[in-house]
Amino acid sequence: MTEDQAAVEIVGAGLLGASVGLALRRAGVEVLLTDIDADHVRTASGMGAGRPAGPGDRVGLVVVAVPPAHLGEVIREALDRTSGTDAVVTDVGSVKAAPLAAVADHPRVGRYVGSHPMAGSERSGPLAASATLFDGRPWAVTPHPAADPDALEAVDRLGEAVGGVLVHLDPEEHDRAVARISHVPHLMAALMAGRLAEAPGRHLALSGQGVRDVTRVAAGDPRLYSQIVAGNASAVADLLHEVRAELDGLIAAVSDGDADGLRAILARGVAGTRAIPGKHGGPTRPSVSIFVAVPDEPGNLARLFADAGEIGVNIEDVHIDHDPGRPVGLLELTVEAARAEELQSALESRGWVAHR
Amino acid sequence: MTEDQAAVEIVGAGLLGASVGLALRRAGVEVLLTDIDADHVRTASGMGAGRPAGPGDRVGLVVVAVPPAHLGEVIREALDRTSGTDAVVTDVGSVKAAPLAAVADHPRVGRYVGSHPMAGSERSGPLAASATLFDGRPWAVTPHPAADPDALEAVDRLGEAVGGVLVHLDPEEHDRAVARISHVPHLMAALMAGRLAEAPGRHLALSGQGVRDVTRVAAGDPRLYSQIVAGNASAVADLLHEVRAELDGLIAAVSDGDADGLRAILARGVAGTRAIPGKHGGPTRPSVSIFVAVPDEPGNLARLFADAGEIGVNIEDVHIDHDPGRPVGLLELTVEAARAEELQSALESRGWVAHR
Questions:
Q1: Most exposed: A64, A163, A289, B291, by fewest CB within 10 Å?
Q2: What element of type H or E holds A329?
């Protein structure tokens, strides 16, 4: 993206659209905003995400950032509207085969290439937008056989300009991938969380960090997630059938006391957790958790991290354990296994109560 | 627990047994250790978890901390061995109906009351033990109709002495509760993680925090978890049948494009996440996440927490987001909703890039 390019027009100035605008403005790109809700344009332009689009504006790239149910129609309209120019159209929706199918018969289909930033928020609307929303997150781009090479390049440059890490997948493969790493995990979390809704409080009082982690994403907005899942129904249903077959096997193993069968299912789970790439995209390095007791008052976390910083061991992840009934938090620090002993001893020598 | 009491004998000096020993020693209680593995006793006593049990020791309470498959037999043996005294026997196993059933016909069944500390580690053995393992964690105690009141009281005092928060449930109810808040969540995580094991790396490259959280606990040892699940097979199978019925409904809703049905399942999930008690056992307070970009080097976390500490807003939870391909971490700080604006502005005024 260079200064001499035509402007980027963003259709839909909600969380994602306004965040793309802020990130592009950060990169020096001219941004035009449109939305059926004039308040959204006012808010987003007031935040510095771009200026309201006007007649005569020259547009090089249209980014469609509308709710899933309207994507196909708005992408089509953008292709119509930019007819006679070489403008490129993309979108930032969570599924990619359906929008492409909606424009497959359009004479300008070669100018459309879809995107999907793997970033979001539990909030919505332009006020929740951020210039850093896409920094370091995967930005999927979904080429298709009819796409013009320069259209694909323009969408790649968009993903880079907003700070994303490009991942190319064809639309069908993208949808299968997000079914597996996003939509079905969300649905599994919702199924599990649904089993908690009716549980007595004295049962839930035994809850530890595990059940909290398993169910956390299920807190997301049912309206949004039902649209996302509906747009990827076929890939999601295929995987749910696989889960169901495995669940049947699990029920049989538990009911029949089949220890080998149960262990095999659990071992596949262990293999799956190891298959997820590590923090920097590489294979997972062996890491270890150290638990530190931290009195639950402002200042103690700072003191702990100041000590950890001086010790010089990089902390890969950190989690505060929720302790019912006690004003002492347990902080879980995840560090490279080879450095764990060093960190624990050094923390203990500084007066922290730490264990593994 | 007072100094004039008879000693506590711990049978099985692994992670849990040695941790009980360390925590009791911290409270000034005399602790005797036994284990079929003499190395465990040597290691645990070397760590300060107690001294090896010898002939003539007067025992007031026996804590059985052996693997799930051996619990009933070892509890029975402890009741036999303390015959003619008023010693109490408890255990720290993950299921509670099966061990009670194993001693139901024992003449001293009144002296047995089970325990279950909701604490553990992915590691095992006495070297992984810690005096703080139970601090602030739920410590379930499971009274039964034949239990002597003073036996129940002794087990309550044990849970308090090691720092736990007492929760009373009868054994069957306890097993149903842990099936729901621990065993089935673990199995659901394993089912989901199993679907990742065979996925292509380019699909997994799109993984965000959600799928990591949903599957994290599935990394646990398959041998241990298969024993735990086998010991609670009936309650686990009942819930898995419920999950299966709900999964069938989910598959139908997704396949038939039934938006209302899908939203209803997702809404039950939202209700479930809200039913889990908050950090201090009370109802969940509204909280908000603030994301802060943190260059991935030692020292930056300390600087951030020092700033947060000076700002004076209590941080309820913290999470480092894993960013493939980029040396900038996104730190998620969870704070009370009413203080979020203040924290975000103050962080930004100190030069941090923060968003919600």
A1: A289
A2: strand A328-336
Number of domains chain B contains: 3
- The verdict on B187 touching A (C-beta cutoff 8 Å) is yes
Tell me the two tokens of residue B240.
């898995």
Of B256, B279, B297, which marks where a domain is finished? B256
For residue A318, the SS3 value is strand
Please judge whether A199 and B177 are an interchain contact, meaning their C-beta atoms are less than 8 angstroms apart. Answer: yes
**Range of the structural domain that residue B205 is part of:** 174-256
Domain identity same for A52 and A113: yes
Contact A195 B273 (CB under 8 A): no
From the CA of A86, how many Å to the nearest CA of chain B?
31
**Pairwise CB contact (< 8 Å): A189 & B223:** no
CATH number at residue A184: 1.10.3660.10
Q: pLDDT (tens digit, 9 = 90+) per residue, A146-172?
A: 999 999 999 999 999 999 989 999 999
Q: DSSP assignment of B215-248, as one string?
A: HGGGGS-HHHHHHHHHTTHHHHHHHHHHHHHHHH
Nearest to B275 among A133, A199, A259 (CB): A199
Nearest-by-CA chain A residue for B299: A309
Amino acid residing at B241: H
Residues of A in contact with B69 (CB under 8 A): none
Do A57 and A87 fall into the same domain? Answer: yes
- pLDDT band with cut points at 50, 70 and 90 for residue B126: confident
Say whether both A13 and A129 belong to one domain: yes
The pTM for the full model equals 0.76
* SS3 annotation, B250-286: HHHHHHHCCHHHHHHHHHHHHHHHHHCCCCCCCCCCC
Closest residue in chain A to residue B121, using alpha carbons only = A356
Give how far A56 is from chain B: nearest CA, Å.
34
Say if residue B205 is in the same domain as residue B232: yes
What distance in Å separates the CA atoms of residue A142 and residue A118, rounded to the nearest whole number?
Answer: 13
Q: What value of ipTM does the predicted structure carry?
A: 0.76
How confident is the model over A53-94, as pLDDT tens digits? 998 899 999 999 998 889 999 999 999 999 999 999 999 999
The closest CB to that of A167, out of B138, B205, B230, belongs to: B205
A186 close contact with B: CB closer than 8 A: yes
Q: Compute the distance between CA of residue A125 and CA of residue A53 in angstroms, rounded to an integer.
A: 19
How would you label A76-111 residue by residue, b for 16+ Cβ within 10 Å and e otherwise?
A: bebbeebeeeebbbbbbbbbbbbbbebbeebebbbb
A84 to chain B nearest CA, in Å? 36
Q: Which residues of A touch B252 (CB under 8 A)?
A: none
Closest A-chain CA to B310: A299
Q: Establish if B270 belongs to a structural domain.
A: no
